[in-house]
Design brief:
The protein is of the alpha/beta class. Helix content is about 55%, strand content about 10%. The strands form two sheets. It has an eight-stranded mixed sheet with strand order 5-12-11-6-10-7-9-8, sandwiched between helices. It has a four-stranded antiparallel sheet with strand order 2-3-1-4. The chain is elongated, with a radius of gyration of 69 Å. The protein starts with 17 loop residues before the first helix and ends with a helix.
Length: about 725
């Protein structure tokens, strides 16, 4: 027999099929409704058992700062104006924390006496007085009050609502109002406490600064006395610093020195000019005096005029007289005397200039000494002035700090006497008779949705966890096999055997589906029809024997000679289905006992024959692997048009693998909803390992009444299409 190549490779897992889960939800709708109903009832029961909670709220207006009663220059410790959005947001968040703080809750507990209120503490149900007192001692009413407070700020406004929840509506309103009053009192107390703390600190600092200011003034006075100065650096009217006395003396001496040096330069120039004129003139000549400005003034001018007149007279006498003449000698004598006097006058003039130059130089030396002395005094005084200025600045700073602290202390003393608050009540809380919890309608709707989602989750979980072969898609896409057809559950109404159901109900949907399987097998190989086909399954109890019997019946109805060969030598059942003896069968023929004609049994179905298993052999697999079995199978192929071999399952034993190599192919029967995909894959893998030809798979036990497999279009609705005449016949 020719070996056919292996079929297509194993198919991968298909992508998500949404409609598959939709069908699963519809198929298990009663499970979903049951879970939903149970959850809804649980939610209703749970809600009705919950205690009723009432709520009340007080509206407050919280300003950023308290009303300004005093002048704007008088500022409080906590009175900053907050102008930007983030600062205001942070402020209101802080106020929310203050409202829910333990300090505010403690005020409420103390004002209302909640520490001994058994109803508020939830201890009213304790009948024993001692046990109740002990429970009250361990209770924490402050935390209980805090847990019931909710701060609800209003967007884009300064209104804040304080909501309180309680079992009693009147007590809820009372708590809300008391929380508001306690918050206002706590806010005012916090501001006053801060102001008092700041006042104490400022008072301490004021005493220290006053003492420091007095000490600084005294140190400044002592420095003046020790420096022996009345005032060092005095500020003028325009605020500019005035120079000291030493600096003024130094400046005056410098001005005089400059003037003396200027004068000395002029005198020196005059003396040098006299020296220069006298140097270039003869000692006896007096003409150099003409270059001196002083020679043209006073007595020297008159003397020069007389010398000139006498010289003129002598010149006139020289024209008449000889030099030895007495008149000439007398005239020359007078001229000589006058010239001598003129020269003495000129010499006196030079000596006078030299004397003036010497006096100016002496004055310069004196001024230089005074300048140096004034400079030294100025430097010493500047050093004292630096120390003085330092002490003066310290004294002024101490005095300024003292005055600033004193002013702030007076402001806080005045502002501390105010009792204004930046919080005021807008609407007081009123008892609300309607409870806020539990909301029965919302709770029931919530549990209904939870139940619905839970039911859906359970169904989807079951569907995801279901690893069985369920429908045609599983066969074709997950297992990679050709889908031959489907068989519904065979449950005869007349109580007869299920194996012969199609024989008794030839027009039933099961019969039509079986005929569709026959047609699919025919069209899978039209040129070379299957003569020998092994029918097996992945596991036991999947209906392969029933499929063999009913498939053989519908094949025989077409006039084809069909032999049902029972090769399940472990649990044979074909002879039971047809009621034929099993004394001689396949095992007998293989070992050479009995005849083929005697072993083949006819049935009530025309053209359908059965070859029972015969006695159970100890080694079925070896028996099927013998030459005798192959020869037997060849004889049967010659005598019948089609031989269907009912074999054991593939999972437990290897009989079907041996048979698949000796036949035209193997047909795999899978029980819908029972056969696991992994089990089917292992069976297919074992067939492919031996290179057997897998014709396809047949899905057995398919529920056609809208169950998990009802959406698959396996065939017609035969009851509404082909059985109208039968129904009319039954009705008549």
């Amino acid at each position: 027999m020719e070996e056919t190549p292996n079929e297509a490779p194993e198919a991968p897992e298909p992508s998500l099929d949404v409609m598959q889960y939709v069908r699963a939800l519809w198929r298990r709708k009663w499970l979903i409704l049951g879970v939903t109903a149970v959850m809804t009832l649980v939610g209703l029961f749970h809600t009705l058992r919950q205690p009723k909670i009432y709520a009340a709220s007080t509206s407050l207006i919280i300003d950023v700062a308290a009303p300004r009663v005093l002048d704007t220059d008088v500022k409080e410790v906590m009175g900053d104006e907050r102008g930007n959005y983030w600062a205001n947001k942070e402020y209101y968040q802080t106020q929310s924390e203050v409202i829910t703080s333990r300090a505010v809750a403690s005020r409420v507990v103390d004002r209302l006496g909640l520490r001994t209120d058994a109803a508020f503490l939830g201890l009213a149900g304790i009948q024993d007085e001692e046990a109740r007192k002990k429970a009250m001692a361990t209770a924490d009413p402050v935390s209980l009050v805090r847990s019931r407070i909710t701060v609800i700020p209003s967007s884009n406004s300064r209104v804040v609502r304080i909501a309180v929840e309680d079992l009693d509506p009147k007590r809820a309103a009372l708590l809300a109002n008391e929380v508001a009053e306690a918050y206002i009192a706590e806010n005012l107390a916090l501001r006053l406490k801060t102001t008092e703390g700041a006042s104490v600190w400022l008072e301490e600092r004021m005493g220290e600064l006053g003492s420091r200011a007095s000490t600084s003034e005294l140190d400044l006075y002592k420095f003046k006395r020790s420096a022996d100065v009345l005032s060092l650096s005095v500020n003028g009217k325009d605020g500019q610093q005035q120079p000291s006395t030493a600096k003024l003396a130094y400046d005056r001496y410098m001005e005089e020195l400059i003037a003396v040096r200027t004068r000395m330069a002029a005198v020196q120039a005059r003396v040098d000019a006299m020296y220069q004129l006298r140097k270039h003139a003869s000692p006896e000549a007096e003409h150099w005096a003409e270059g001196l400005p002083e020679a043209s003034e006073g007595a020297l001018r008159d003397l020069r005029a007389k010398v000139l007149e006498q010289r003129t007279a002598c010149v006139e006498l020289s024209e008449r007289y000889l030099p030895e003449h007495p008149k000439m000698q007398e005239c020359q004598g007078k001229l000589t005397v006058m010239q001598q006097e003129l020269r003495r006058g000129l010499e006196n003039l030079v000596r006078s200039a030299e004397t003036a130059l010497a006096a100016v130089k002496a004055n310069e030396r004196t001024l230089l000494e005074r300048v140096e002395q004034a400079k030294a005094e100025a430097f010493a005084l500047t050093e004292k002035e630096i120390a003085y200025q330092k002490l003066r600045r310290e004294a002024e700073n101490d005095q300024r700090l003292y005055e600033m602290v004193l002013k702030r202390f007076k402001e806080l003393e005045l502002s501390g006497q105010l009792r204004t608050s930046n919080v005021r009540v807008l609407d007081a809380a009123l008892p609300n008779p309607a409870p806020v919890r539990p909301n029965t309608r919302s709770a029931v709707m919530l549990f209904f949705l939870l139940g619905l989602m839970g039911g859906v989750a359970v169904v989807l979980g079951l569907e995801l966890l279901d690893a069985s072969v369920a429908n045609r898609a599983d066969v074709e896409e997950r297992l990679g096999l050709a889908f031959i057809g489907a068989m519904p559950p065979l449950k005869p109404e007349d109580g007869g055997p299920a194996d012969l159901f199609i024989h008794r109900h030839p027009r039933s949907p099961a019969a039509e589906m079986c005929r569709a399987i026959r047609t699919n097998l025919l069209f899978m190989s039209p040129d070379k029809p299957f003569r020998t086909v092994v029918v097996s399954s992945a596991g036991p109890a999947e209906g392969k024997s029933t499929v063999v019997i009913n498939l053989g019946m519908v094949m025989a109805q077409t006039g084809t000679r069909v032999l049902l060969m029972d090769t399940d030598m472990r649990r044979p059942r074909l002879h039971k289905a047809f009621g034929v003896p099993d004394d001689v069968g396949v095992s007998s023929l293989v070992v050479g006992e009995g005849s083929l004609e005697g072993a083949i049994k006819s049935t009530d179905v025309p053209n359908l024959f059965v070859l029972p298993c015969g006695p159970l052999p100890p080694n079925p697999a070896e028996l099927l692997h013998t030459r005798a079995f192959s020869e037997l199978l060849g004889k049967l192929r010659e005598r019948f048009d089609c031989v269907l071999l009912d074999s054991p399952p593939l999972g437990p034993v290897s009989d079907a693998l041996v048979l698949s190599k000796q036949t035209d192919g193997i047909l795999l029967v899978l029980k819908a909803g029972t056969t696991q995909r992994e089990q089917a894959r292992r069976a297919i893998r074992s067939l492919r390992d031996v290179k057997a030809r897998v014709i396809g798979a047949l899905l057995n036990h398919v529920d056609l009444k809208g169950g998990k497999y009802g959406a698959e279009n396996y065939g017609y609705n035969y009851r509404g299409y082909g059985n109208e005449r039968d129904e009319q016949r039954r009705a008549s």
